[in-house]
Amino acid sequence: MENNDQLLSAPGFRPSIDAIQEFKILTGVFPAEYGRNSGSQVIVTTRAGTNALHGSVFEFLRNQVTDAKNYFTPPNAAIPSFKQNQFGATLGGPIIRNKTFFFGSYEGTRSTQQITAVTTVPTPQMVAGDFSGIPTVVSDPLTGQAFPGNKIPANRLDPIGQALAGFYPTPTFATAAGKAPSNNYVFNQPQVDKLNLGSLRIDHTFSTKDTVNGSYNDFEDSQLTQNNTVCGSRVIP
């Protein structure tokens, strides 16, 4: 059975680290059983059960208390919230001693965080129709002539446009005189990740020369990444 994501050129299922027995990297010319991609191949062998019952349990925690503040977070702002739990367990042992063995693993990830993002919003002066602080000339669409002082008269402002412009937040960074606003607003957008990864392997030995094994793997990854941009933004990892 093939375990490759053709779109990403990556494995479709990645076993939990505690379920890996060994791995090796192939380079150069591969045997026909590996084929397709050039460069290198990563071969992963999962763990099998033995006559002794054995297992493991792990938990890995990260949060905003132990992380540094993002460079683009304003000095007086709190560190964006972040909490990640990565946990799991493995168990392996005999079904029929010296003949049939099992090995199962589970790994879960629960991550909730706020990602610092930078975007561009109009200044309060621009929302009010005053574009005198930017180099771009604002022209009257009716006459094609520039508005005096680069300011749109109050009686020419459309009430619907003003209402829509009112949804823009106030910039968190000042815009230099004579410059158009750029990356002047920092905000946090939520990102939620819920992953469940499980596998079960069964091995049976017929003789010292003949063995067979089969595995069942389940991978579920639910992610929520919101794009709260208003004029286009870039996410700061």
What would your notes on this structure say?
The protein is mainly β and 237 residues long. The protein has helices at residues 124-127, 159-165, and strands spanning 4-5, 10-11, 20-27, 40-46, 54-63, 82-96, 100-119, 185-205, 211-225, 233-235. It is built from two helices and ten strands; from the N terminus they run E-E-E-E-E-E-E-H-H-E-E-E. The strands form three sheets. Strands 5, 6, 7, 8, 9 and 10 form a six-stranded antiparallel sheet that branches. It has a two-stranded antiparallel ribbon with strand order 1-2. The model is unreliable at 229-237 (pLDDT under 50).
Rg over C-alpha atoms, rounded to the nearest angstrom: 29 Å
- Classify the helix fraction into a percent range: under 10%
Count of β-strands: 10
Number of helices: 2
Which runs of at least 5 residues are low in confidence (pLDDT < 50)? 229-237
Spell out the blueprint of helices and strands:
Blueprint (H helix, E strand, L loop, with lengths): L3 E2 L4 E2 L8 E8 L12 E7 L7 E10 L18 E15 L3 E20 L4 H4 L31 H7 L19 E21 L5 E15 L7 E3 L2
Antiparallel strand pairs: 1-2, 3-4, 5-6, 6-7, 7-8, 7-10, 8-9
